[in-house]
Amino acid sequence: MARILVTGGAGYIGAHTVYFLLRAGHEVIVVDNLCRGHRRYVDPARLRVLDIRETRPLAKLLRQEAIDAVIHFAAYAYVGESMEKPEIYFDNNVAGTVSLLNAMTETGVRYLVFSSSAAVYGVPREVPIPEDNPVAPVNPYGESKAMVERMLTWMDRCRGLRSISLRYFNACGVEPGSGLGEEHDPETHLIPLVLRAARTGEPVTIFGDDYATPDGTCIRDYVHVSDLATAHLAALDWLLQGGPSEVFNVGTGKGHSVMEVVRTAETVVGKQVPYQIGPRRLGDPPVLVASPEKIQRTLNWRPVYTRLEDMIRTAWEFEKTRS
């Protein structure tokens, strides 16, 4: 087993990955500045409240803890916010990663699993999207992830730092029994917003119903957060066993529209979900669906959750605890 540093491990996907790392027997140290994470999500892993832009303390921690590999989640991740404040995305997501890479290079840590995003594709050339689809982001969030991916390519070539970039699609759901959940502030993910509308009666806003899709609403590939977590473990094992740097999509290969999510949630909850139609959101491509063949073939990873109804049901069990 290995000693793993997880940046952003107090967030939604990071905390789920920490949960699975601990179950697999790894020793985990979490670095998070808690500006958007939750301290209670870290237990029983050890937490260091630290910003990844603080290079010197970060290098000291890597050295003191004899870290074998890093899984890097720490980033801002709101598309709309990135369109309004692109500078904070380049500062936090890009400059923060430069700081992390400097600390890793200084201390000889050579393995990194990077939390990338399907947002690097922008409006894709083909659907389902293969990894060799052109990288052409349409928002600063996606651009920040693409910039880091390019940096990692050069860090491998010039410094021997091997990495896996996981371009994942729409994370959703909750690992049953984990005590974790999806609690963003503000919440921007569709499924928790839809379930909140069902619980409170306050309508959820659907951003645009005039896209070139069968029902006019955006189509996304929803992947359960537990499956995302196991993809990170598979990527970590690949690197620790000597595998080369790679880029993988993480998705199910199935697309669901916003209205499909609403109707499926109604089935799970047993009542109608109130909604209203709003204008399109800047930076939203009409369709994002993964081709997951490469990760299935190379890392032998496959999602456990393949039905949207099952994914939403795990999220609903958590949502009911918030009432």
Task: Write up this protein.
With 323 residues, this protein is of the alpha/beta class. It folds into two domains: 3-169 and 224-250, NAD(P)-binding Rossmann-like Domain (Rossmann fold), CATH 3.40.50; 190-220 and 253-290 and 300-320, UDP-galactose 4-epimerase, domain 1 (Alpha-Beta Complex). It has ten helices and 14 strands. It has helices at residues 12-23, 55-64, 79-84, 86-107, 140-159, 190-200, 225-240, 258-269, 293-299, 308-320, and strands at residues 3-7, 27-32, 46-49, 69-72, 111-117, 162-168, 170-172, 204-207, 219-220, 222-224, 246-250, 256-257, 275-278, 287-288. The strands form four sheets. The protein has a seven-stranded parallel β-sheet, with helices on both faces. It has a three-stranded mixed β-sheet with strand order 12-9-14. The chain has a two-stranded parallel ribbon with strand order 7-10. Helix 6 crosses helix 10. The mean pLDDT is 96.
